Amino acid sequence: MHVSERGSFTGGAAAARMPQSVASRRIAALEQHFGERLFDRSSRRATLTPFGRSMLPSAKRLVRLAEDMEHEAERAKLSPLRLAVPDICATHDLARLAAVARRHDVYLDFQPAGPAERAELVRSYEVRAALTAVPATEAVWSVPLGLAAATPPRASAISLESLRVGRADRARWRRIWVQPEDDVPHVRDRITRARDAVGLLPAQVAVATALTTAAAEVLSSTDLLLCSAKQAEQLALHWRPVGGVELVRGFAVSANSRDDAERVRTRLWPDIADCLGAQPSSVAAR
């Protein structure tokens, strides 16, 4: 088409942004395919043959279709990938993750939600992917959990036995607050079993309705918050690991499309790890 408009193979090739030799080979291949000459080469100017003029309208339609397809491909690349994330993720961490993702041609649109809701959002196709809560053995990202207090604990680790109280001290017992993000069996049941094993009162492990509620209780008392070190820092609390009990918040990618899952997991896992306050587990390297 460009050759016919400019009357030369050199000018047409330049308009199409390709070497003249490539344009000549492509036209020759088309002529061989159709079994007819498209251009009359008997003069210095490249002019269409009658057959070439008959084919020109179809060629123009194909060019327009190709340009439309290129445009749609670019739009598809820019289409946001809606990702359900833990509602404990800080805004500045998510903004940083979104900025990094764009450098990988991934445009994220976040949907903060709790653990059960994130899994449901994927099942109902309301999001394309989600960071779901899983046991540590299945995790792509693993977040060690510990206990945080308003004042710095003296010990390098907090043992649950140290929270045990006698009958005379029951008015001063300390609670461990479990936030909604950790109200999942692989975390909640483990801390509950540890509570019972050392003889704490049932009420000494409590599930909060919201992280804000739990943090307020800890900031105004001697209670403790079960959380990650990153969360404790954001809340101005003093974090210590739990002695003798390994508690881990695990995350994996759930998506309805394998391509979406791989894009999130392989292109973004270091940055998601930073957002979650996690260390990537061995599963991420599989």
Describe this structure in words.
The chain is an alpha/beta fold and 286 residues long. Among the domains are: 2-77, Arc Repressor Mutant, subunit A, CATH 1.10.10; 141-248, D-Maltodextrin-Binding Protein, domain 2. Helix content is 44%, strand content 21%. It has helices spanning 2-6, 9-15, 20-34, 50-78, 91-103, 115-123, 185-198, 211-219, 229-234, 258-276, and strands spanning 39-40, 47-48, 81-86, 108-113, 129-134, 141-149, 158-159, 176-178, 205-207, 224-228, 238-243, 248-255, 279-280. Strands 3, 4, 5, 6, 7, 8, 9, 10, 11, 12 and 13 form an 11-stranded mixed sheet that branches. Helix 7 (185-198) links the parallel strand 8 and strand 9. The radius of gyration is 31 Å and the shape is rod-shaped. It starts with a helix and ends in a 6-residue tail after the last strand. InterPro entries: LysR_HTH_N, WH-like_DNA-bd_sf, WH_DNA-bd_sf. It comes from Goodfellowiella coeruleoviolacea. Keywords: DNA-binding, Transcription, Transcription regulation. Belongs to the LysR transcriptional regulatory family. Residues 1-49 form the HTH lysR-type domain.
Q: Mean of residue pLDDT?
A: 86
| Run of helices and strands | HHHEEHEHEHEEEEHEHEHEEHE
CATH topology of the domain at 141-248: D-Maltodextrin-Binding Protein, domain 2
Q: How is the main sheet built?
A: 11 strands, mixed
Beginning-to-end CA distance, first to last residue:
50 Å
Model regions low in confidence, pLDDT < 50 over at least 5 residues: 282-286
**Radius of gyration, in angstroms, nearest whole number:** 31 Å
Note the total helix count: 10
Gross CATH architecture of the domain at 141-248: 3-Layer(aba) Sandwich
Question: How would you classify the helix and strand content by structural class?
Answer: alpha/beta
Got a strand count? 13
CATH class division of the domain at 141-248: Alpha Beta
Strand content: 15-25%
What percentage of residues falls in helices of 4 or more residues?
40-55%
Label the overall shape: rod-shaped
